[in-house]
Amino acid sequence: xxxxxxxxxxxxxxxxxxxxxxxxxxxxxxxxxxxxxxxxxxxxxxxxxxxxxxxxxxxxxxxxxxxxxxxxxxxxxxxxxxxxxxxxxxxxxxxxxxxxxxxxxxxxxxxxxxxxxxxxxxxxxxxxxxxxxxxxxxxxxxxxxxxxxxxxxxxxxxxxxxxxxxxxxxxxxxxxxxxxxxxxxxxxxxxxxxxxxxxxxxxxxxxxxxxxxxx
Length: 215
Known about the structure:
By secondary structure, the chain is α+β, with helices and mostly antiparallel strands. It has 7 helices and 5 strands.
């Protein structure tokens, strides 16, 4: 049986390798597929203004579908690897992601911060982005709600992130046994010395708190 530290090192290595591959795929989506779709979109807009009136409604539908597809590709690229995370920091990356998230899923997310942002290690920034991303994905898929809120509290003793939705809630203990997403959040936070606390009440919503000590 592998010792806890060895298992932790293996998990950390696997996550790091996954992030490098996701970064590569995200770049290909943005620079390749995304640019091609945008070229097609602008071409369809040009054609739309010159087609026979009987085809105009069809072209409008196709243009709207293309626009929606571009939006989805952009969100997917950011989900795979947020470009602003390294250059501008965690808060800027989250703000950019939330704009795409709301336009894609129709869920309004109130974003609040307190205190001064502290420069984090790259591993910490990526982990915190990933767990917030997972929590938001769960809200979109399971919560059955149109609003949520996120609070980043930068305090001398640590960073505390609270994500709340106002949906239908769930049984946390039962869900932990068969939800890899929830387990992944707990494991990822543990790998950077942080913690993840999940609470939920039926028809009252769910709260997830991530905490990380600031050294």
